[in-house]
Write a structure and sequence with these properties.
Blueprint lengths: L8 E3 L5 E3 L3 E2 L5 H14 L3 E3 L7 H11 L7 E6 L6 H15 L4 E6 L10 H13 L3 E7 L3 H10 L6 E5 L7 H10 L2 E5 L11 H10 L3 H12 L2 E2 L6 H8 L8 H8 L20
Parallel strand pairs: 3-4, 4-5, 5-6, 6-7, 7-8, 8-9, 9-10
Antiparallel strand pairs: 1-2
Helix pairs in contact: 1-2, 1-9, 2-3, 3-4, 7-8
The protein binds nicotinamide-adenine-dinucleotide.
Nicotinamide-adenine-dinucleotide binds next to helix 9.
Length: 282
């Protein structure tokens, strides 16, 4: 039964442990987030990935309190929205995140997008996150959607190596260069849209493997991520799928199957290109 599953943890570069499998709440309506998150907690998830941009941090906080599970047993990530890259704005926005969550800390706080073409340098933003980490109110800090040159600048110009880089990764966008750089530098890759928002699920190679081992193509894809060592947090509001996506630890893919899935790469993004994405809410 899913509830009995033990999710492996990964140790981040500052010693903090993160459950390798979590629940993502992107595009979940703020009014539905409490119930969706509560359902995930009931199934056994102990890691929730939200963001100020998603508008649903409050629902995540409500669900954790309503679940009766101790706050310390749930790993919560949130992210700095694009309009708040200046130092003072970032510090204020972080306070807003804690207020919305109703928590004194987050486990992980990320810069959501690097926005390399706007007039605020993400190195300034990263230094604000360093201040937040020093205050103890974020147990770990990291980035999202950073490309290799963006990561390199943080390594060259600041004193903190990001704990994670949360990037788009799935069988149609393997994103190997960014993953490999992270691996070299001690930055854990978190793979967002791990099933490409459902786009990979009818792929014939995945279907062949899934039929052969008696699992769904979603489970095969999520297991591929797990065996490659990335952190994932698939999203669903359908109870059956939430359970299915949690049920990844009683089977293993062969090395040949892992390689065959990796070979499906076609460099196809579902989301924006981090080098050019410059959306800042007004
Ligand atoms: P995903 O790859 O998790 O796919 C979600 C969609 O796939 C759902 O809407 C559902 O319709 C379908 N689905 C889920 N499980 C299924 C199953 N077992 N069978 C069939 N269909 C299924 O996509 P996502 O939500 O974009 O990504 C997951 C999480 O990653 C987000 O919730 C968010 O936390 C994070 N994320 C981060 C960024 C970023 O910029 N940092 C961007 C996108 C997503």
């Amino acid at each position: 039964m899913a509830r009995m599953t033990t999710v492996p943890s990964i140790t981040l570069n500052n010693g903090v442990e993160i459950p390798q499998l979590g629940f993502g709440v992107y595009q979940i309506d703020p009014d539905e987030t409490k119930d969706a998150t509560l359902a995930a907690l009931e199934v056994g998830y102990r890691h929730i990935d939200t963001a100020e941009m998603y508008g649903n941090e409050a629902g995540v906080g409500e669900a954790i309190r309503a679940s009766g599970i101790d706050r310390s047993e749930v790993f919560v990530t949130s992210k700095l929205n694009n309009g708040f890259h200046r130092r003072d704005d970032a510090l204020r926005a972080f306070d807003g995140t804690l207020d919305a969550l109703g928590s004194e800390y987050v486990d992980l706080f990320l810069i959501h997008w690097p926005l390399p073409t706007i007039d605020v340098d993400y190195v300034e933003t990263w230094k604000a996150l360093e201040e937040i980490a020093a205050s103890g109110r974020a147990k770990a800090i990291g980035v999202s959607n950073f490309q290799v040159p963006h990561l390199q600048r943080l390594l060259d110009e600041t004193g903190t190596v990001p704990a994670v880089n949360q990037i788009e990764v799935h069988p149609f966008l393997v994103n190997e260069e960014v993953r490999a750089f992270g691996q070299q530098k001690g930055i854990v890759t978190e793979a967002w849209s791990p099933i490409a928002q459902g786009k990979v699920l009818d792929d014939p190679a995945l279907t062949e493997i899934a039929e052969r081992i008696g699992k769904s193509t979603a489970q095969v894809t999520l297991r591929w991520h797990v065996q490659r060592g990335d952190v994932i947090f698939p999203k669903s509001v359908t109870r059956k799928r939430v359970e299915e996506n949690f049920d990844l630890f009683d089977f293993e893919l062969t090395d040949a199957d892992v390689a065959a899935i990796t070979a499906l790469d076609k460099g196809e993004r579902t989301g924006p290109d981090p080098d050019t994405f410059d959306y800042v809410p007004s």
